[in-house]
């Protein structure tokens, strides 16, 4: 509510936010970088434009007049359909005026502080590099590159305000947005964000949060199938890629759990030189398999990889609490072709085993059987997720949730996945197959 200098407005009557949209408002005010959504239908775009009105009115009530905010999409046609036509229909004439043409702004009346919503086309983000905005709001953030976000946040400032912020709404997609807001992973190009990780907040929204959805919209959502249904109806960030081998993998398989310091660890290795050599660090803990670290590199000699394994066992964060000092992996499941690597591991006191020692019977493909067994451990028929992957395993997570696919979309359990983004996944499958009985129950250590 406006309490000074401007007439009092009961914002709840003006915008009519749902309970979830009110939660989003609170979270956005508490965090510098806030993301809302994850499915279709909770009223994300509606919240985005009305949240800007809410903040402009609030600042006006505090004596800050003429504050500018940015509401943007990846291109102008999308911006007009998602936001501008809705603003023209929803914002009352007494509140302010929309200026079309080159200007493309909604300006609150002087009575309500004269704040400005600038409508932005991000096809050329360079247009805004010298601008200043108290809030930057992006609709469908996943459709923009990380470089767009990174350059825009340099314009996030306004004289006299300390509570500026970035807000966005989006549907799920496997890209940098998921890495930052959902998985909290800040590697490579995202590394500069690591020091401010606590300023990022995500609130999931579902169609069931919106009591205003028409019946026809529900009919559309309920008739979706496959990955699109999981993404749009259930907000599943790991189902938005068609044709994934492990389409049952979800955020529930990702953890920040560390291994038990005094329990054995093992390795899974898919060998390569020009292609990457993927090495996974694994521990069985109760009813779970924890994949807690990885090595992933090309053009490394076998002895270099072994040296890096030993280095991790000495100095990685998960190794520091071992009471008995350096403890090497007790076993390594290794590609059947990697004879030289197995020999060098054995000489380094890491027992290396050819994962193909036990083959599938009945003329079936061992690799396909290993995939089916791994799929059941990712999520079984009762919803139990045996395999947990630490969020630091960036390459395994990237493969399993976006890159490891069938050639032409999902083609069934008897089809081999496409070659390419499969090295860490094949390492995991090899370990699962080596360490499991035909029934799928894991062997004891």
Report what the structure shows.
- The protein is α/β, with parallel strands linked by helices.
- Helices cover 31% and strands 18% of the residues.
- The chain has helices at 11-15, 19-30, 44-61, 76-90, 146-152, 176-182, 215-222, 226-234, 302-315, 339-347, 366-378, 394-403, 423-434, and strands spanning 33-37, 68-73, 96-99, 105-108, 116-121, 135-139, 165-170, 200-204, 254-255, 266-270, 277-285, 288-297, 331-334, 351-354, 387-390.
- The protein has an eight-stranded mixed sheet, with helices on both faces.
- Helix 11 (366-378) crosses helix 13 (423-434).
- Mean pLDDT is 87; it is low at 438-445.
Task: Explain briefly what this protein structure is.
By secondary structure, the protein is α/β, with parallel strands linked by helices. It has two domains: 11-234, Rossmann fold (3-Layer(aba) Sandwich), CATH 3.40.50; 251-434, Nucleotidyltransferase, domain 5 (2-Layer Sandwich), CATH 3.30.420.
Properties at a glance:
445 residues, alpha/beta, Rossmann fold, Nucleotidyltransferase, domain 5, 2 domains, eight-stranded mixed beta sheet, 13 helices, 31% helix, disordered C terminus
